[in-house]
Design goal:
Elements: H1 2-12, E1 24-27, E2 37-40, E3 51-57, E4 60-77, E5 80-95, E6 100-104, E7 116-120, E8 125-130, E9 136-144, E10 151-159, E11 185-189
Parallel strand pairs: 1-2, 2-5
Antiparallel strand pairs: 3-4, 3-11, 4-5, 5-6, 5-7, 7-8, 8-9, 9-10, 10-11
């Protein structure tokens, strides 16, 4: 749980490029680690996800592009920081009935511009933080489809508990626009 909370905080606090040093290099799935640790993809689990994945759900085409930022520094403030091989994604949604682009952040290049990030490689948990819509936070899971090398099962979408935000025009989290699919479906690597 500490790991998930730390990852959520990373999107609430900007990463910085101060000159902090790595204190230890540990596997990405580590939970107890010292300040300044580098959580490295030692087991080479992240490359499977890297690339473009597409799927259709509710007559909408979803395109996800995953990338890894190696040794990304995350600064939690008060002198607490870590380095992380961060798996992040950007996505696009097209309504197939009208060909209208409903959402598109595929132009994101910088780490802070990505909205989807890995919470737990063991649990297949990902989070989406929509900074443009009241910092709305959603969670979903991605699992490799057994017996394939190019498919992911997208499932278990849910909104994560939402706190009131001063400048948010919505009183209910369910009313905040979110463009992620809410149902289960298969993504295929392109």
């Amino acid at each position: 749980m500490k790991r998930i909370v730390n990852i959520i905080i990373l999107f609430l606090i900007f990463s910085t490029n101060s000159s902090c040093q790595v204190t230890a290099t540990l596997p990405l799935n580590s939970y107890d680690y010292p300040n300044g640790a580098y959580l490295k993809d030692i087991n080479n689990q992240l490359p499977f996800y890297v690339g473009t994945w597409e799927g259709i759900q509710n007559n909408k085409q979803y395109t996800f592009q995953f990338t890894v930022f190696n040794q990304q520094m995350i600064d939690f403030g008060n002198g607490h920081y870590e380095y992380l091989d961060a798996l992040v994604a950007k996505f696009k949604v097209v309504d197939l009935s009208s060909s209208e682009v409903l959402y598109d952040n595929l132009s994101a290049v910088n780490y802070d511009d990505y909205e989807i990030f890995l919470g737990s490689i063991q649990l297949g948990t990902f989070f989406c933080l929509d900074k443009n819509n009241c910092n709305n936070l959603a969670k979903f899971k991605l699992y490799k489809v057994t017996g394939t090398t190019n498919q992911l099962n997208y499932n278990d979408f849910r909104l994560v508990e939402f706190g009131s935000i001063d400048e948010c025009p919505y009183t209910n989290q369910e009313d905040i626009p979110i463009f992620l699919p809410t149902g289960d479906f298969i993504l295929t690597k392109q």
